[in-house]
Every structure is written in C-alpha cells, then in structure tokens.
C-alpha cells in the first residue's frame, strides 16, 4: 500500500472513502413521514430491498449533517474561540450558513462569478465541501463532498422498542406516606378527572365510528343526532381542567440491531488537501463529542464506530491508488494512517491556527484580505448625570 503519494503540488484530486460503519448500539430514527406510515405505531427505520432481501439504511442526510457538517463547524469554531478568546465569534445567521447551508430569502442576489466562488472556497472549507443554498452574494454554491447511505451488509430484521410510563402512586401505595393530606387530596382529585377524561375519549371514539357508519348508509337524521351528542362530549372535555394521564404507553420505535455492520462510501470530487483535512477534522470532532447517529440517544441508541480506506482516483485508465485509512472510535482521537492523510490533516490545522479561514456570510467586500474577528467587549456603563447646583 502506497500511503505517501506527494500531492503537495496537485491543485485538486478526487478522494474516495470506502469502509464500514458498525453499530455499537441499535440505530433508530424519528422520521415523521415513516411514523405516519407505521401500521403498528412504532416509528420504523428506513429499509432498502436488494436481491429480494430487506437491508437497513442509515440515510446519507443524517450522516452528512450530524456526523460531518455540524462537527466541522464546531471544530473550527472551537479553534477560533481558543485562539481569540471570543466565546461568541459567529452570529446566528453565520451558524445557519455553515451548519445547514443558510436559509434562503425571497431577495434575488446578483449573479456570482467563478472567480468569486473559487476565492470563497479557499477561505471557507465548510462551504467548499458541503455547499450552501444561501451563500450571500454567491447564491447557491455546490459542495464537493458526496456522502452515500450506509447500507447493512446483510439482510436484517429490525426489533421493536416500546415502553410505558407508570404512576408511582398506583404501583407503590407507600409513596403516599410522603405526601401531606392536602397533596394526597390533590392526587385523588387529579386521578378522578383523568379517569373521567379517559371515559369521555372512549365515548367520542365510539360516536365517531357510529357517525361514519350512519353517513355511509345515508341516515342523515341519525348523523345529526349523533353529532349533537359528540358536541356535548367535546364541551365536557374542554371544561375539564385536568392534565394528561401520568400512566400511559410511550411511542415505540423500530431499530437496526446492535452489532450490525453497514457499507459506506464518501467522495470528495476535485477537492484540495485542505478540504480533505477538514473532512477528517469533522470526523474527529464527531468521535470526541457526540458519536451518535439517528434518534433516541437517551434510550441507548445511535452509538457507532467506523473506518474507511482512502484512495485517490486514477487518471485516464489507471485504478485508484490507496493512500491510507481513517479509523473512528467513540471518545478516542481519530486514527489516521498514511503520510498523505496526515499531511492533509496537519495542513488544515496549520491554516486554521493561522486564522486563514473565514466563516462569515460571503460578500464581495470581504473577498480581498483577511477579515479580522474582534473579541466582543462588554458594553460601557451609561455616564453618571452631572451634579447641578441647588
């Protein structure tokens, strides 16, 4: 394996990451669209059919945003904070610009030029790697990084996680001994109101079924009578000041099982060594601070580890040349194997430490020269009123 190709004088190259994501905990999602389609009420995970078999999928959008783009911004921001002493170096708009690509407005910007885009790519590796839909006067800037879905190596069958919230006072009557008489009375009143609301809900559901049946049979007089009853039940519900029941089932979810391995690829098309270094910095930040993907972290889901072999695309009819590997383990420093990859990571950090990057909203005025970000100072106290003679 040749891990020391000299790319110092190469303006751009295509870097291909091919590897494996390994689930150290189950993977779940909180997709609203998937939840609506669930017949059993448990939010499913995305799946893909390959060779007539179901394979689980970690969507590329979650990997690109949660594992790479936002961590890249956090990595650079923390360096700026440490270097300048300014704990709030960027504005809200600048956060959204770097973290999600900006928020489009209805205003029409001036057409951009290729030279301007190239200039800002050099100043902001996040913009160059991930692109932006609202990049100031540049309009939309396409990103050079393509992130694939992570797809299970083998067919899989997801498992269902569910649960229920219990009322401790129902399960353990001795807990009542720690409440005053006044609080005990409050509990019993609240319980009675909750039970009444539950009965009302069942009556409402039954009436709605009857109304639907009557409509299908065109029994409109019966429909009118049932709707009057339904209105009364709704009025009762609105006048009931109680809260939701303490004891209730919790929304379940499906998950790709722990220990599952998934194939994953990424590609930086015509990227620079600095951009390659920025991508590795993002993975490092993810590993050390929040190495989770998907949803339901608090319930033991989403922890991952990963490793990729990195190659440079060949020219003409040459095959790609492997230049090293990147190994990511949660709570560990990123392991970078290969001289070229280490050179890229060091080059990115050198430029970052020298203040050569600019994460502000692009403008023509800022393109020339380095933009200084001054540390914020506390506002001056208002001057005391001058004394006047009596």
Shape descriptor: elongated
Contiguous low-pLDDT stretches (5 residues minimum) are 370-390
Rounded to an integer in angstroms, the radius of gyration calculated over CA atoms is 29 Å
The number of helices is 10
Structural category: alpha+beta
In round numbers, the mean pLDDT is 85
How many domain regions? 2
Strand content: 15-25%
Order of helices and strands: EHEEHHHHEEEHHHEEHEEEH
Distance between the termini: 91 Å
Helix content: 25-40%
The major sheet is characterized as: 9 strands, antiparallel
DSSP, total strands? 11
Summarize the structure in words.
By secondary structure, the chain is an alpha+beta fold. The protein folds into two domains: 244 residues, no CATH class; 56 residues. It is built from ten helices and eleven strands. The strands form two sheets. Strands 1, 2, 3, 4, 5, 8, 9, 10 and 11 form a nine-stranded antiparallel sheet that branches. A hairpin with a 6-residue loop joins strand 10 and strand 11. The longest helix is centred in the middle third of the chain and has 36 residues. The chain starts with 12 loop residues before the first strand and ends in a 37-residue tail after the last helix. The C terminus is likely disordered.
Descriptive tags:
alpha+beta; disordered C terminus; two-stranded antiparallel ribbon; nine-stranded antiparallel beta sheet; 10 helices; elongated; 390 residues
């Amino acid at each position: 394996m040749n891990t020391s190709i000299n790319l110092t004088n190469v303006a751009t190259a295509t870097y291909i990451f091919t590897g494996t994501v390994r689930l150290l905990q189950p993977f779940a999602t909180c997709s609203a669209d998937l939840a609506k389609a669930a017949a059993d009420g448990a939010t499913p995970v995305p799946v893909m059919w390959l060779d007539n078999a179901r394979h689980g999928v970690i969507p590329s959008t979650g990997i690109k945003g949660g594992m790479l783009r936002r961590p890249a911004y956090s990595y650079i921001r923390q360096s700026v904070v440490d270097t300048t002493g300014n704990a709030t170096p960027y504005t809200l708009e600048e956060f959204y610009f770097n973290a999600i690509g900006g928020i489009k407005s209805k205003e029409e910007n001036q057409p951009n030029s290729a030279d301007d885009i190239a200039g800002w790519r050099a100043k902001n590796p996040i913009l160059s790697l991930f692109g932006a839909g609202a990049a100031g006067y540049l309009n939309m800037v396409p990103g050079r990084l393509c992130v694939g879905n992570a797809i299970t190596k083998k067919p899989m069958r997801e498992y269902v996680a569910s649960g229920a919230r219990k009322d401790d006072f129902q399960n353990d009557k001795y807990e009542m001994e720690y409440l005053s008489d006044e609080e005990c009375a409050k509990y019993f009143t609240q319980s009675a109101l909750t039970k009444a609301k539950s009965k009302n809900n069942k009556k409402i559901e039954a009436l709605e079924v009857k109304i639907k049946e009557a409509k299908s049979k065109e029994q409109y007089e019966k429909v009118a009578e049932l709707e009057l009853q339904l209105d009364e039940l709704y009025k009762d519900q609105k006048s009931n000041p109680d809260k939701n029941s303490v004891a209730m089932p919790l929304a379940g979810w499906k998950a790709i099982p722990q220990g599952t391995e998934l194939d994953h690829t990424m590609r930086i098309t015509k990227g620079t060594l600095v951009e390659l270094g920025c991508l590795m910095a993002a993975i490092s930040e993810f590993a050390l601070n929040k190495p989770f993907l998907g949803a339901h972290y608090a319930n033991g889901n989403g922890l991952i580890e990963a490793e990729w072999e990195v190659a440079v695309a060949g020219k003409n009819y040459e095959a790609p040349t492997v230049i090293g590997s990147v190994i990511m383990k949660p709570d560990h420093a990123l392991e970078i194997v290969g001289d070229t990859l280490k050179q890229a990571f060091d080059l990115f950090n050198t430029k970052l430490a020298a203040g050569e990057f600019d994460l502000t909203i692009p403008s023509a005025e800022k393109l020339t020269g380095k933009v200084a970000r001054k540390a914020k100072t506390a506002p001056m106290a208002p001057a005391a009123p001058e004394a006047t003679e009596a």
